[in-house]
Design goal:
This protein is mostly helical and 229 residues long. It is built from ten helices and no strands. The protein is 75% helix and 0% strand. The chain crosses the membrane at residues 51-77, 89-107, 134-156, 163-180. This is DUF4386 domain-containing protein.
């Protein structure tokens, strides 16, 4: 039985890299003081270099999640249930789409620097108001978040991660979305998610899970029935 590609070790390395890069990006981000476009632009214009660095870390963090998602799907596919099928589909769609959307940060930075605040806000809000942009944004963001969480649950169910890992990641996102936008929720919630992903990544790198040959065995219901005599 051939080993899956990407290998569990490479998958784990990508998962750890993704978690660390994303958390650095969140911590470096110049967060706005309130949830308005004007406040967001003011934060970007006040810290232009910091904003570019944060967007770059976040971009490559989600880029690293993509091969990790492919690797988890490849590793668990022979015995994967609905968690893996739904989570893998959402995660792959999300992680290959979301990195490209971060280029918007550079456009918003340019608007904030080159136009009066009211005009910059008007242009940015108009761009966000186009109906079809939701076709890009919703699958990317929802897929990346929900998909990666489901993959962590799939790793737990397949004995490749401790039980606390997916629940810690969920708790991290709950903190992020429950608290007002800013550094604190991402420092706390992002750290929970990062630790959870890194733990799963270390287990994959060390091969601390079921034997790959056992993981690759089909379920009994997948074994073809013998041919009729």
């Amino acid at each position: 039985m051939s080993r899956p590609f990407p290998s569990p070790r490479l998958t784990g390395v990508c998962l750890i890299a993704a978690a660390v890069l994303l958390q650095i990006g969140y911590l470096v981000t110049p967060w706005e003081s309130e949830g308005t476009t004007a406040s967001y632009h003011a934060a970007l214009a006040g810290h232009p270099t910091q904003a570019q660095i944060a967007a770059t870390f976040l971009h490559f963090g989600w880029v690293a999640w993509a091969p990790a998602a492919f690797g988890i799907v490849a590793l668990l596919a022979p015995r994967g249930g609905w968690l893996l099928k739904i989570g893998g589909t959402l995660a792959i769609v999300g992680t290959v789409s979301l990195p490209g959307l971060l280029v918007v940060d550079f456009y918003d930075l340019a608007l904030a620097q080159e136009l009066p605040s009211a005009q910059a806000v008007e242009v940015s809000d108009k761009a966000s108001g186009y109906g079809l942009q939701a076709l890009f944004q919703v699958p990317a963001v929802a897929g990346a978040i929900l998909g990666t969480l489901l993959l962590l649950f799939a790793l737990w169910r397949a004995s490749w991660a401790p039980a606390w890992v997916p629940f810690a990641a969920v708790a991290g996102y709950v903190v992020v979305f429950a608290l007002p936008v800013g550094l604190l929720p991402f420092a706390i919630g992002g750290s929970l998610t990062m630790v959870a992903c890194c733990c799963a990544g270390v287990r994959l790198v060390r091969g601390d899970g079921p034997d790959v040959r056992e993981t690759a065995k089909p379920l009994p219901t997948d074994v073809p029935a013998p041919a009729a005599a």
